[in-house]
Amino acid sequence: MSVARLLALLLFGAINVAGTPAQLKLGILPFADATASGNQAAGADVARTMLAEVVHSTEMQPRILVPGGAARVDALDSDSAIALGRAQHLDLVFIGTVLDAKTEESNKGGWIPSIKGQSAAVNVRRVKAAVTLQGELYDVAAGRRLFSVRLTGNDSNTSVGGTTYTTFGSWGSDNYQNFLSSPLGKALQAALVDMTKKIAAAHVDSPAR
């Protein structure tokens, strides 16, 4: 290989490395719960679910942010969120709120046809769920809001008998994964997927180094 060709390849590689965009660092605050569910862990659980989606579907580097002192998430303003992002050397800070989470349920009873003289009663349940989130994304370096948006996720399911989650925040410390498998949990995840897409599409002028 000639010296000129080798130099050209090295120069091309250097340009590619220099032109590679830095991974954006995203801070996600625990979600505020406007549904008044009373579950103190609900906001942190939702934030962790969003973090998992960001890791899965983007190249960003997300982390959970915790407000300092006794500050409540629902009391944070934009200046406080941006200051928290600067202290953590982040590019973006996301503030989310669960605005509404509702289910519509219908039941239909019946009988399984007789087999060898035996029959059984069944209860067919149909559940439709919707979760509405509000999200605000802030550019830390620029000190400005990139967007404020409301998105709704939906899901429905028909099952025979059994139990399901029809109220947001009704899970305990050991059954959040069961909640995520319910129509209400899947509606939440659908809204988080759409919110993550909005974040990934946001433009940041100067990523932190």
The topology string of helices and strands comes to HEEHEHEEEHH
Mean pLDDT: 82
Can you identify the CATH superfamily of the domain at 22-100 and 132-151 and 172-201?
A: ABC-type transport auxiliary lipoprotein component
Per DSSP E runs of 2 or more residues, the count of β-strands stands at 6
Major sheet description: 6 strands, mixed
**The CATH class of the domain at 22-100 and 132-151 and 172-201:** Alpha Beta
**What overall geometry do the principal axes of the alpha carbons give?**
elongated
In terms of quaternary structure, the protein is single chain
Fraction in helix: 25-40%
Which class best fits the helix and strand makeup? alpha/beta
Q: State the CATH architecture of the domain at 22-100 and 132-151 and 172-201.
A: 3-Layer(aba) Sandwich
Beta content comes to 25-35%
Number of helical elements:
5
Describe this structure in words.
- By secondary structure, the protein is α/β, with parallel strands linked by helices.
- It has a domain at 22-100 and 132-151 and 172-201: ABC-type transport auxiliary lipoprotein component (Rossmann fold, 3-Layer(aba) Sandwich).
- It is built from five helices and six strands.
- It has helices at residues 3-19, 42-57, 78-87, 176-180, 183-201; strands at residues 25-28, 32-33, 61-64, 92-115, 118-139, 144-160.
- Strands 1, 2, 3, 4, 5 and 6 form a six-stranded mixed sheet that branches.
- A hairpin with a 4-residue loop joins strand 5 (118-139) and strand 6 (144-160).
- Helix 2 crosses helix 5.
- The longest helix is centred in the last third of the chain and has 19 residues, at 183-201.
